[in-house]
Amino acid sequence: MTIPDEKNLVSKDGTAPLRFAYWVPNVSGGLVISKIPQRTSWDADYNRKLAQIAEKAGFDYALTQIRFTAGYGAEYQHESVAFSHALLAATTRLKVIAAILPGPWNPTLAAKQIATISQLTEGRIAVNIVSGWFSGEFRAIGEPWLDHDERYRRSEEFIRSLKGIWTQDNFTFRGDFYRYTNYTLKPKPAGALPEVFQGGSSRAARDMAARVSDWYFTNGNTPDGLRAQVEDIRAKAAQGDNSPKIGVNAFVIARDTEEEARSVLDDIVAQADPDAVKAFGHEVKNAGKASPEGEGNWAKSTFEDLVQYNDGFRSNLIGTPDQIAERILALKEAGADLILLAFLHFQEEVDYFGREVLPRVRALEAQRSARTTAAPTAAAA
Ligand SMILES: Cc1cc2nc3c(=O)[nH]c(=O)nc-3n(C[C@H](O)[C@H](O)[C@H](O)COP(=O)(O)O)c2cc1C
């Protein structure tokens, strides 16, 4: 199948084509906490080739991960900003999102690093500001583990500082965590401002997205679960001048038959490392419980959900290319602007997704766009 021209995908109601991102496996063990054999590697050569395959397949973004210590199946972890630059150097169109954790990073260093990478890559770098879920990691590197909502208060100041430094000369800011006095960064990022993504679904995460983030990334979910979050964020955002776009996580198992795809999922879960999954579940649920509402990103996650780090099975992109394309459209209709994808065997499956699923998504988008634009004409006639 061929991919229709992007400009034909924008419907008259203003709906933009869905964007696609993939998780960069810069951490060992892949994106599932399972002993199932994976033809995915965390090394640089594998990842450079994967980035080239993804760019050719039609992906818009690659999302790196930041982890400072081992645990839950992730023994080795390449650093996200340096790794992002390596992927950008190996590609020409793909945007790479560098994960940044306030605490180990401060906005001064992050703004400077990202501005330089932006200059080196014609503005293809973006950032994902993460707020932390792994208290053991903070302890190991001597970083204070702030209360849940304090972590988000710090992240919000971090984002405000980044945007201030990138856009203003003589930037002055008086926060509780960060302070600037007449600070001028030169050079600033090339072209458009680096996009600021964030991860997390708690009340504090949604409020921060409504106020300052360009993109809100959330864990895998059903269309109804996603819609509830989107409505909440949009209602909050409408009170200010920010309008964040929405990205949702999903683990894709696309096979020629649904039975094949389901049996891969069964194998991943059957070979899950139960101790690692339970320990991961304990850590992330604790991190969320410390929020005032007592819930976080993983509040409703079952054992099976937790085998994929960010609840990617819940989005149910498991089946044939036709089924998956339909379900992706349902996520779009629930408010997603971007689908973030993980795979078992990244290189082969990103390629397959580009050939078999993406063209079906584009065809469905074009069909629905034609339907919405045809409807008013018919009514007028
Ligand atoms: C798509 C996505 C990517 C994330 N990437 C990272 C990461 O690379 N490193 C990290 O420490 N946390 C990462 N997180 C975790 C979040 O920043 C946040 O700490 C976590 O989701 C807890 O959110 P909560 O406040 O909703 O419970 C990510 C979250 C999402 C949804």
UniProtKB/TrEMBL annotation:
One of its GO terms (molecular function) is monooxygenase activity. This is FMNH2-dependent dimethyl sulfone monooxygenase. It holds the Pfam family Bac_luciferase. Keywords: Flavoprotein, FMN, Monooxygenase, Oxidoreductase. InterPro entries: DMSO2_SphG, Luciferase-like_dom, Luciferase-like_sf, SsuD_RutA_monooxygenase. Residues 36-337 form the Luciferase-like domain. The lineage of its organism: Bacteria, Pseudomonadati, Pseudomonadota, Alphaproteobacteria, Hyphomicrobiales. It comes from the Bacteria.
